[in-house]
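Standup notes, structure subgroup. Blocker cleared on the 2-acetamido-2-deoxy-beta-D-glucopyranose input:
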Amino acid sequence: MRLISLVLQFLTLGLSIAGLQPAPVHRRDAPNPADLYPEHNISVPIDHFQNESMYSPHSDGMFNLRYFFDASHYKAGGPVIVLQGGETSIVGRLPYLQKGIVAQLAAATNGIGVILEHRYYGTSMPTANLSTENYRFLTTEQALADQAYFSRNIVFPGLEHLNLTAPGTAHIAYGGSYAGAFVAFLRIQYPDIYWGAISSSGVTEAIYDFWEYYEAHRKYAPPDCVQTQERLINVMDNILNSGDNETIDAFKSAFNASSFTYNDDFANTMSLSFGLWQGLNWDPAVSDPSFYYYCGNITNNSVLFNNSDLASSASEWIESGGWGNESSALTNRMLNFIGWSKAAYVDGVNNLDARYGAHNASAAKYTDKSLSNYGSLSWAYQYCTEWGYLQSGSTVPQNLLSLISRLVSIPYNMLVCNYAFGIYGPPDVDRVNKYGGFNISYPRLAIIGGEADPWRAASPLATLDMPDRLNDTSTVSEPIILIGGLAVHHWDENGLFPNETTTELPPAPVRDAQAQLAQSVQAWMMEWQQHCIVEPGSCN
Ligand SMILES: *[C@@H]1O[C@H](CO)[C@@H](O)[C@H](O)[C@H]1NC(C)=O
Ligand SMILES: *[C@@H]1O[C@H](CO)[C@@H](O)[C@H](O)[C@H]1NC(C)=O
Ligand SMILES: *[C@@H]1O[C@H](CO)[C@@H](O)[C@H](O)[C@H]1NC(C)=O
Ligand SMILES: *[C@@H]1O[C@H](CO)[C@@H](O)[C@H](O)[C@H]1NC(C)=O
Ligand SMILES: *[C@@H]1O[C@H](CO)[C@@H](O)[C@H](O)[C@H]1NC(C)=O
Ligand SMILES: *[C@@H]1O[C@H](CO)[C@@H](O)[C@H](O)[C@H]1NC(C)=O
Ligand SMILES: *[C@@H]1O[C@H](CO)[C@@H](O)[C@H](O)[C@H]1NC(C)=O
Ligand SMILES: *[C@@H]1O[C@H](CO)[C@@H](O)[C@H](O)[C@H]1NC(C)=O
Ligand SMILES: *[C@@H]1O[C@H](CO)[C@@H](O)[C@H](O)[C@H]1NC(C)=O
Ligand SMILES: *[C@@H]1O[C@H](CO)[C@@H](O)[C@H](O)[C@H]1NC(C)=O
Ligand SMILES: *[C@@H]1O[C@H](CO)[C@@H](O)[C@H](O)[C@H]1NC(C)=O
Ligand SMILES: *[C@@H]1O[C@H](CO)[C@@H](O)[C@H](O)[C@H]1NC(C)=O
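Run returned:
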């Protein structure tokens, strides 16, 4: 899932902030997965629920749902392992088919790996445009029905001689983040179609006001960085709330950001950096290390930017912002915060309102209903109607210092719902929480996630702080795995070729977690073979 208040590519909940992306490390010797796997479509119904009035007017049409597959590990009797792509184009998920979790599970079980797109993302569009009326077919239950339909009907090109449909063939689902919750629901809603599922960082509890998002940072990020962030954000908020327009203007102009019309847009932008935590990964070729650069900058006691002329102003702001007792320690850090944020978000942007602002109801990100704008609209529609996860600063309990500005409020985060879809009320979280929320469980449903994942607070692992509780509840049928080593978001999903591994990579917690998943799916396949013997004729 995306960090909704950020400039995201989300929701793998992944994010991308202009100017801070490290140059990707290319491993030139391995083939580009986009050249290995041709694109395919399966035709699926637009409306799986002809009886339900919420989908009226109904459609009896079909649309192309995209998928990629790899049968190179397949041997007779092996499963079909379907990775649900979730809220993005699946092209970015292809490395998981080539060398990530799907390749690993397929190799361990002689399976076929599949990456399946979600309706209203990538090229899998049920409607001709993204008008709000056309979005009526974008619900979690319709998308779950797509994946069940896929498994009941799939005939893989080149393998037409094999009947690989469910339930005669074992189908196993994998998903991370939103897709992690999705596959858990899939196992429960379609137990006869999906033999097992792995829910990685699965956000099975939909939460309207998700202020807890940043609590993982508070607990696991470097303490000096957390303390500094708490104070700098508090100073900023106290200035912006002071009513002293002269000081507010001077403060904004230190970032060269006076042109922000709305102070909440300014405050939201200057809060973005802390969200970079989620972009960390154990694989340096995948990780965005910017969070640590940011921390390195705001905790450095020397002025790192050419803005020491602002030092006396900075100390006055710290004083009037309530932290005068620490102003000698905070002044240079404030200058570094200003310098870093200016370089990251302001420099080179000629219209700050247009780039970061949420208040313009006629902005193209809200009003452009063409299919190509799905990145701005589709996940927003899903969280405005069903999932929530508004990452607010305003509702952080008053006994805590918020790690993002308190000007980032629920109404502020709702502006996209207001302007893009005319939605003003909270989402109907019951539509997804009915599957079990935090307490979701089912035979052959694996729950896995990172200890330091901000999304853990919306997952079944939220309350599993005690390692001994894990050991008590984890079984082969229902493994519960908390990945240590400061693991963040679905760190079990990406992998390395055998010739790329070293003693450090993958790190032991990830290597062990992936091995445990492979063993679990192998055990599930032994149960499958039993089932085929006990119920003759039930397997192809
Ligand atoms: C590593 O393995 C991959 C997959 O088998 C292969 O494509 C690549 O060429 C190998 N790299 C080297 C350096 O051998
Ligand atoms: C899959 O469907 C999309 C959307 O209809 C289309 O653009 C694309 O060409 C199709 N791909 C193939 C291989 O048929
Ligand atoms: C419509 O509802 C009826 C009665 O509840 C049910 O038997 C039937 O299967 C439903 N049809 C569809 C397409 O869902
Ligand atoms: C969207 O498509 C519908 C038909 O599905 C059409 O009636 C409507 O005018 C289109 N709206 C936009 C904004 O393109
Ligand atoms: C494939 O197997 C299923 C049972 O799992 C059966 O219902 C279906 O008719 C078979 N399809 C073909 C094309 O034989
Ligand atoms: C300060 O600025 C706000 C917003 O621009 C404005 O509404 C208010 O009247 C100003 N206050 C003073 C004292 O000028
Ligand atoms: C400050 O941030 C820059 C830009 O991200 C980074 O290159 C540099 O290493 C950081 N400095 C420190 C001391 O962390
Ligand atoms: C502060 O930044 C400077 C310049 O980048 C660097 O040389 C120094 O090591 C940093 N100090 C700390 C404590 O990181
Ligand atoms: C540093 O900033 C001052 C203005 O505050 C400017 O005059 C000077 O040219 C800048 N120096 C560099 C090296 O950019
Ligand atoms: C400064 O004051 C704040 C309360 O306003 C307090 O929380 C903090 O601990 C004080 N810092 C020091 C170094 O005493
Ligand atoms: C401030 O922003 C303006 C407008 O984008 C730009 O022209 C100017 O160079 C910037 N000044 C600094 C010091 O970055
Ligand atoms: C839980 O299991 C792990 C791995 O088997 C083991 O290392 C750890 O000591 C166990 N913890 C407790 C509290 O029993």
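Discussed briefly. The chain has two domains: 39-206+433-534, 221-421.
Next: hand off to the docking folks.
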